[in-house]
Amino acid sequence: MDGFALASGVGSLVFAGLCYSVYRNMKDVAIHLKNAESLDVGKDLLEKIKSAPNHTLDYVAIRGDAKALESTLKTENVPLARLLIHRTTVYEHKSEWVRSSKVWHDTKRMISSVVNHVSFSLNSANSSHRVIVDEPLSMSGLEYSRIYNKYDPLNSLSVSTNIVQWASGEKTKGIQTIEDGLLDGTALTAVGKVTLRGGTLKIKHPDTYEYILSKLPLEGIIREKTRSIRRWKYVTIGFTITGGVLLLMWLYRQWRRRSQQVIGGNRFIPPAPPPIFDKGFDQSVSEAGEEQSCVICLTQPRNVVILDCGHICACRACATQVDTCPICRAEIARLVPTYQS
């Protein structure tokens, strides 16, 4: 029990430290987002970046409609969909036999995930200005639109295959194919570093801050970050309190165990030496007689008084190794030695 409390307490504090690191990083991101300027793609953005040092805006939020620079992506399952980013994920649905509960449990395992994209830009609805998005797959915060979801059950397996699956404890039930992505024309907010080179505006990964692409406006992104920060804060506090309580419990048990070995104030009772038997002596009987021998080891004389119950039933070596009286099971507060003249 003591080892479990110590390990759990240390583990909780370590996990709390990791959670605090995530919390601090997200809080820094939220601070930078609040300081970022929100701009629409258009003439105002162009004039602002021309007056900026090196024609660079270090961290701004750009709002515009996503448009492909050339042709869009197509998919066989949804021919009318025009995609800028396309992700196809295939899952295998299985049933596994759980021996402990003796039931079949449904599970899902990802077989493959393929992502394709084309170059696109954020365009103004009222002008011809645009900002090219650099490395969109490295951006965080984007939620794809679901365009296709189909489950194909496997009902035509051979008898031998079914027998093998039953024997192995795993049965394949079906294959699920999911397609999602970013549709052409979606209004997006990109947060990053904007540069002007050769008359072309481009948003890139900032030097130190988070690179974000989201369907939400800047205010919505900040609200989502604030909610996440609050959740990580509560998780950090919870694991810190849990780890602290477990460590205090472990320290209290150690202190209590040591204090029970102290009798008569601060005087420590050393363990009694092992009994020495002569040849031919019956070791099952104590030197002091069977009625006066320790009820635990049955060899040494009873030489301590157990308080608060007052029983004299054990030797000092055995009494220091137990927490309760062997006779009445009362908790041992302290031990007082007895002396016979």
Automatic annotation (TrEMBL):
<keyword id="KW-0833">Ubl conjugation pathway</keyword>
<dbReference type="InterPro" id="IPR001841">
    <property type="entry name" value="Znf_RING"/>
</dbReference>
<keyword id="KW-1133">Transmembrane helix</keyword>
<dbReference type="Pfam" id="PF12483">
    <property type="entry name" value="GIDE"/>
</dbReference>
<keyword id="KW-0812">Transmembrane</keyword>
<keyword id="KW-1000">Mitochondrion outer membrane</keyword>
<dbReference type="GO" id="GO:0016567">
    <property type="term" value="P:protein ubiquitination"/>
</dbReference>
<keyword id="KW-0862">Zinc</keyword>
<keyword id="KW-0808">Transferase</keyword>
<protein>
    <recommendedName>
        <fullName>RING-type E3 ubiquitin transferase</fullName>
        <ecNumber>2.3.2.27</ecNumber>
    </recommendedName>
</protein>
<dbReference type="InterPro" id="IPR013083">
    <property type="entry name" value="Znf_RING/FYVE/PHD"/>
</dbReference>
<dbReference type="GO" id="GO:0005741">
    <property type="term" value="C:mitochondrial outer membrane"/>
</dbReference>
<dbReference type="InterPro" id="IPR051652">
    <property type="entry name" value="MDM2_MDM4_MUL1"/>
</dbReference>
<dbReference type="GO" id="GO:0008270">
    <property type="term" value="F:zinc ion binding"/>
</dbReference>
<dbReference type="Pfam" id="PF13920">
    <property type="entry name" value="zf-C3HC4_3"/>
</dbReference>
<keyword id="KW-0863">Zinc-finger</keyword>
<keyword id="KW-0479">Metal-binding</keyword>
<keyword id="KW-0436">Ligase</keyword>
<dbReference type="GO" id="GO:0016874">
    <property type="term" value="F:ligase activity"/>
</dbReference>
<dbReference type="InterPro" id="IPR022170">
    <property type="entry name" value="MUL1-like"/>
</dbReference>
<keyword id="KW-0472">Membrane</keyword>
<dbReference type="GO" id="GO:0061630">
    <property type="term" value="F:ubiquitin protein ligase activity"/>
</dbReference>
<keyword id="KW-0496">Mitochondrion</keyword>
